[in-house]
Amino acid sequence: MKKALTVIIICLLLCGCEDYAELNNLSIVTAAGIDKAGDKYEVTLLIANSPKNETTNKEGEAKTTVYQGKAKTIAEAVKIIDKKTPKQLYFSHINVVVISEEIGKEGFLNVADWLIRHPQTRNRFYLMQVNENKAGDVLKIISPLESFPSQSIATLIESNKNSRSVGDTASYSNFIGRILETGYEPIMSTIKINGTVKEGSTQENLETTEPKTYLSLGPLAIYKKDKLIETTTKKQTDLIYVITNEAKELLYNIKYKNSSINIFSNAVKTKIKLKNENSVDIYVEAKGSIYEANGNINLNSTSEIENIEKIWKTSMKKDLIKLIKQIKTEYKSDIFGFGNMIYKNYPQKWKKIKDKWNEKYFNNLNINVHTKTEIISTASLTKTLRDDEK
Amino acid sequence: MEKISIKIEETIDKIKKIYGNSSDINTRIINIKGTKIGCIFLESSSATATISDFIIKSAIYAEKSKTIFDNLFNTLKNKLFNCQLFTIENFKDFPYYLSSGFTIIIVDGNDKAIVMETRANLDRGITESTSEPIIRGPKDSFTESHSKNLGLIRKRIKDPNLWFDEIKLGRRTKTRITIAYINNIADKIKIRKIKDRLNEIDIDGILDSGNIRDYLTSQKSIFPQIKSSERPDTACQELLNGKIVILVENSPFILILPTVFLDYIKSPEDQNQKSINISFTRILRFFALIITILTPAIYIAIATYDQNTIPDKLLISLAVQREGVPFPTFFEIILFMTVFEILRESDLKSPTNMSTAMSIVGALVLGQAAVDASIVSPITIIIVAITSICSLIFQDSDFINGIRFWRFLFILASSMLGVIGILSMSLIWITKMASLENLNTSFLSPIAPFDKTGNQDAIIKEATPNIYERPKYISSKNIIKQGGRK
Fold this sequence. Notes:
heterodimer, A: alpha/beta, GMP Synthetase, Chain A, domain 3, 9-stranded mixed sheet, 4-stranded mixed sheet, 15 helices, B: 486 residues, 5-stranded antiparallel sheet, 12 strands, elongated
């Protein structure tokens, strides 16, 4: 018994508390921005728990600080920041990583290695690209509704997941997963700074009722391997989500008898079926209700509704075909994973074509779009207001 | 065996000498038709009114009557009005009876003595239980009077198979200890073992049932292996389950053997309420047990080693709270745990009218001021508060202290090894508990070893109409509890 006790005590003393760290000795990094400055990388880290001279901060209210470091590699830049902060940097709570357009064009994998290799980081963070502005600037924008910038970006994405379909594309693991998968090209969400950075990074931005600077989600960026090809438009983004079956809500505008009708659909289902080696069928089934209708349309009549359905069907089909054609011919990036389907179903064929898939064979792929639409209700009004006036 | 002298003066002198002429020893010599009789009693422990009414009065009437007594001793023995009356021949028995409140009557020329019960009523009445209060159920509790305690049990179980075996223990106190059991249910081997262990005790005094508790467990364990209770209904419930109850004179707390771990998460109220609600309450108590043992350890482990397991908003909030606190987390927790334990101890020991002052000092001064002065972080106060509230759910103070011991071990392990420390300490804890055994009953039964009959009323309680058998792990004799099984 005494021997066993001695062994246990010695074991306990030998462990030496290797990973020991007190909470107040950590600088909790919640967001990172990576920019390119000349031939150097500029890393910006957002540290969430800086008390900012307030010694009695009892409400658990955090103030954020941004540190920047410039070096030839990411690791070196982080080391420079580590020397600037009095506390130990702690990376496991990174929520958001923002990269600039230049990083995207140069290739994201140059940056990704550090993010994966670091023992503390996890792959459950959002990866965003910022156009026009510097990535570091995104972290400086204070939002009046959230306590620190990284949180506001994360909330922005999460709250939009259902309504404006940002979905899993914003997550880092999804992006890397698509790069590594055969016959799949990645897409990345973008974020946009509205207003000037200078105004957005000061406390005054919080004090006005109408924030002068705020962040908003932008359209998707299409990548090929890890390189940025093109940033799409808002409409293209919506349709890309329709094809990838991630669209939870879709607002579609059609012209009918000189009037503009908005159809809102919250049940868009898409199935992609591989017909044979050379052709793919895309079945889109949308159910929607009329959201807004101006003009002289009798919404009571079944034939009118059927007509609207038909126009919606054909115009959506036309738009989808146009989008696919643009992606096939202009961007040459298989973001829908058709190549992956061929790889899974016809591995022999894939072996022959995989080297020139995006450049040649993707373009030759026969893609048929089948749409089916149904208007299930006209919401609270059965007629248009103009119709009533008569 | 020491013979009683036939001369009463000689005997009286001897007794006075033994008691060192104590002030409470009283003697009275009465002459009845030429024969001297002597009454000896201790005025402190006997009811003097009874003595005057039944002994002195009778003796004086006898003196006045015309009857001639050929054998005064036998006449007294037969004619005195008292139900507890017997003769003794050994002088050595005198002190026991005197101190118990008996009156000794000696007759000149006889080497025997009559003892008659004239006990003074030195105990409080039957009151409500203070240590195990319940809402729904009988309110009476055991008192210091041994015969009252036995009566409280006897009045509930009218079966003659309820047997009371008595042993007198303690060289000086001569305390009566009663082993109560239902003869055709309780395990004979267990009863014999208990008697053997009790008979081995050779100590000068036993003042409470707690004094003999340690003799009855075979191993040294931090968790108590014998439950004590002051409720007659609990005692009877356990007797009906086949357990053995030990009552000690002058102690309102009885001992219940064998006790298993799950007995501590049961409450006397459990039998009186709907079984489904009781099952839920017991699960709650079980969680409280886990919380009270593990919370501080888990907090230390994740706050000092595995910060990545905390959700980011909480982590930032914790980090900001700890800003400016000079001590390491481990020390902070230990410090406040100790402060709380001291507070609890002093609250228990202080008179009731001081406890208000105590709670003001404890809650306001220590809690609020310590946070304001940045000595501890608010989260530490929360952790200590949750831990202590959860530990107070249990009624047995010995059990609470056992929990406290293990909690400190867990804190130590987690502060050195983090989550791995908690895991290894849990292994040690479970192994230790599983290895405990008393009276051939494993401490973790009926879960390990598994017992089907016992599990009908373990954590999940089945409805009483569906429990037909009493738990086998206690006693395998006469197992049917309820008839009418289909």
